[in-house]
Design brief:
Blueprint lengths: L2 E8 L3 H12 L5 E5 L4 E8 L2 E8 L5 H9 L2 E8 L3 H10 L10 E2 L4 E6 L9 E6 L4
Parallel strand pairs: 1-4, 5-8
Antiparallel strand pairs: 1-5, 2-3, 3-4, 6-7, 7-8
Length: about 140
């Protein structure tokens, strides 16, 4: 794993939260994106080398809506950048970690992603992210 790629924060209202984080971080939201497959709207902020992703569920059955219902708004996951997501997934499986998906899937911000079950990581949902390279 190379670095923390972003911190994901679950929110009830993307519209209200974008305003809060623009003021807090003193920077504009650089991108919003609907990820239909995950039933989530996202908004991204960059501050220095770091990124923050806000996540709003678009349906009651979305993972984000369920998370907020159970735990309230707050930190949802920490994402780490990797060079080779397939190799990293295999390494983690060999180390005994449970992955939440067997294959990487298309995520927000031009990334292929995979999640590691929080029961194996002291309650923290971990996301692996690999930039999709366009030829």
């Amino acid at each position: 794993m190379n670095k923390i790629e972003h911190i994901g924060i679950a929110v009830n209202s993307l519209e209200k939260s974008i305003d809060v984080y623009q003021k807090l971080l003193n920077t504009d939201c650089y991108k919003t994106e609907l990820v239909v497959s995950e039933l989530v709207n996202t908004a991204f902020f960059k501050t220095g080398e770091n990124k923050v992703e806000l996540l709003e569920g678009t349906a009651p059955e979305s993972a984000i809506a369920k998370f907020i219902e159970k735990k309230g708004e707050g930190i949802h996951h920490i994402a780490f950048a990797v060079d080779d997501i397939l190799a990293e997934m295999e390494r983690l499986k060999q180390e005994g970690f449970v992955l939440l998906n067997e294959q990487p899937k298309k995520g927000a911000d031009n990334k292929m992603v995979c999640f590691v079950h929080p029961k194996d990581t002291n309650g923290v949902l971990i996301e692996l992210c690999q930039e999709i390279k366009w030829i």
